[in-house]
Fold:
Amino acid sequence: KNETLGGLLNATFGNAVEMIVSIQSLLLNLITVVKGSLLGSILSNLLLVLGMSFFFGGLGRRNKEQEFLETGPMTNMSMLLLACAAFAVPTVFKSSVGSEFSSSVQLDDTVLSISRVASIFLLLSYIGFLFFQLYTHLQVFESADDNQAQATMSIWSSMLILLASTVLVAVNSEYLVGSIEGVVSECNVSASFIGVILLPIIGNACEHVTSVRMAIMDKPVIA
Structure:
């Protein structure tokens, strides 16, 4: 349970930074940046982090395959694919039946309602996933040496450090979001590029490095 909880805390506090940046971007009406950041985060986890974990995790095991329980990773991948599908539903709806609406205002209101329902569905799915991961199917996410690891810090001190780091990053992210428009105008860089590429990689850098490091240490449950 220690490795599972550790991986969950790492993912939660790691994504808290991105969530704070997204909220601040919404307050500044940077909708393109927010949409790109969410999409880029999913793609980076599906492709970049997964590929790097496989690659570096296998470097030190040329004559040995790295093994892990497949049910846990498959569940995580299913959650990511579910998020991608939730993003696509409003766009598909607008493209397929948008011409049947008499006014654009009515169409936009309907798409907005669908987006809100999808967001609530994703939130409930995440809560169900936590219950599945920590209570009903905990053994699926446990590795054989989970109980052998010795903690060097207490859970409360670890959470306190993570919380303090998140608060500091939240303060700095305000300056980051405030400088996006200036970078777009002066450096001739599109807001979509910043949202899809730069913010997901930079915002989740600690989480990505931790995932690769755990893969190298042969702890794919945390990765």
In short: The mean pLDDT is 77. The two ends are 14 Å apart (CA to CA). DSSP finds eight helices and no strands in the chain.
